[in-house]
Design brief:
The chain is an alpha/beta fold and 377 residues long. It folds into two domains: 258 residues, 3-Layer(aba) Sandwich (Rossmann fold), CATH 3.40.50.10540; 82 residues, formyl-coa transferase, domain 3 (2-Layer Sandwich). Helix content is 40%, strand content 13%. The chain is built from 17 helices and ten strands. It has a three-stranded parallel beta sheet. The protein is elongated, with a radius of gyration of 25 Å.
Length: 377
């Protein structure tokens, strides 16, 4: 997911992205709900790309890959370390013919170190990087974050590095090699958790609570839960009177952020005792009127029914020749002069092989021969 997500965002930004798949196709093509080699999951992270099929086990296909790399600005690969080198398609080899190439490798643990050879999966990286140790409720079994944080995080870190490398190339004339991983993404995202550990405390799961501020968590109302972010003295000075307890402001347990954090569980119990007497809608209206950060805890049906989602065009629709009308996520970034374009479908398996290879100077006869041997599709 990391490589496809990274390159999808580049594609949304206007890059011409060529996705190279093996003869059987990307594994996400046959995820739940697929029709043949077409799936909503594949479309979710490959929209707008050109799709070609190369059997990189065959010399002819590897030669095609090298020819494409000669004129490429950026190459992103998501294999286990060593795979591209064994194929003769590593950075050191390709940069000899294209020194401007920006080459990004995204792996499970990075290209070096004692764990480099291990495979990378988001679940495994969440566990190894510490994320699962701080996710969930205290005293309960470890759980993963609901989203594939290390996959997406590695993809976004790679994206930032690629853009920086392209910018540097504009003055230096040289590309460079980028190496990042799911494991490192999980660690890099652990900002508050690392801070707590470096301060001498091992972070533990806190449910929805924040480890640096209180009250900043979910609270139970009469008909469900809402989040409240009264995470500083100014906000708490509004919250306590609104809850009918102005005396909390002088209470030594709650009078400053450090004390509220130290007595977080006691404060949360006192707040919930009050909020359990009203509905979510009632409390959210009161919090909004008072300027206290708060919000509902939505399921995804509620998320995609939110008028703010529609106003920000966070759902887009595209037509697919096999799957029909597909809904997908829009772009979270709005740019005034170079707007992102998420309103395109993903390629069908091998859909653009002829178009891409012919444009790269490969003749019809050569293409027919490679197709006959299965080197391309």
């Amino acid at each position: 997911m990391a490589g496809p997500y990274c390159t999808m965002v580049l594609c949304d930004m206007g890059a011409r992205v060529i996705k190279v798949e093996p003869p059987g196709g990307d594994s996400s093509r046959v995820m739940a709900g697929s029709i043949g080699t077409e799936s909503a999951a594949f479309n979710a992270v490959n929209r707008g790309k050109l799709g070609i099929v190369l059997d990189l086990h065959q010399p002819a296909a590897r030669d095609v890959f090298r020819r494409l790399a000669r004129t490429a600005d950026v190459l992103v690969e998501n294999y286990r370390p060593g795979v591209m080198a064994r194929l003769g398609l590593d950075y050191a080899t390709l940069a000899q013919e294209n020194p401007r190439l920006v080459y990004a490798s995204i792996s499970g643990y990075g290209q070096t170190g004692p764990s480099a050879s291990k495979g990378g999966f988001d679940l495994v990286a969440q566990g190894a990087s510490g994320i699962m140790s701080v996710t969930g409720e205290p005293g309960r079994p470890p759980v993963k974050a609901g989203l594939p944080l290390t996959d997406l995080g590695a993809g976004l870190f790679a994206l930032a590095a690629i853009l920086a490398a392209v910018h540097w190339r504009s003055s230096s004339g040289r590309g460079q090699y980028i190496d990042t991983s799911l494991f490192e993404a999980g660690i890099a995202l652990s900002v508050w958790e690392a801070t707590e550990y470096f301060s001498g405390r091992t972070p533990a799961p806190l449910g929805s609570a924040h480890r640096m501020s209180a009250p900043y968590q979910a609270f139970r109302c009469a008909d469900g839960y809402v989040t409240v972010g009264a995470a500083n003295d100014r906000a708490f000075a509004k919250l306590a009177p609104l809850l009918g307890h102005p005396e909390w402001l002088a209470d030594p347990r709650f009078s400053a952020d450090a004390e509220r954090l130290r007595n977080r569980e006691e404060l949360a119990s006192a707040i919930e005792a009050v909020m359990a007497t009203g509905t979510r809608a009632e409390w959210l209206a009161r919090f909004e009127a008072a300027g206290i950060p708060s919000g509902p805890i939505n399921d995804y049906a509620q998320v995609f029914a939110d008028p703010q989602v529609a106003a920000r065009e966070m759902v887009v629709e595209v037509d697919h020749p096999v799957l029909g009308r597909l809904r997908g996520l829009g772009s979270p970034v709005k740019m005034s002069d170079t707007p992102l374009n998420p309103r395109r479908r993903a390629p069908r398996l091998g859909e653009h092989t002829d178009e891409v290879l012919l444009a790269a100077g490969i003749g019809d006869e050569e293409l027919r021969q490679m197709r006959a041997t299965g080197a391309v599709r």
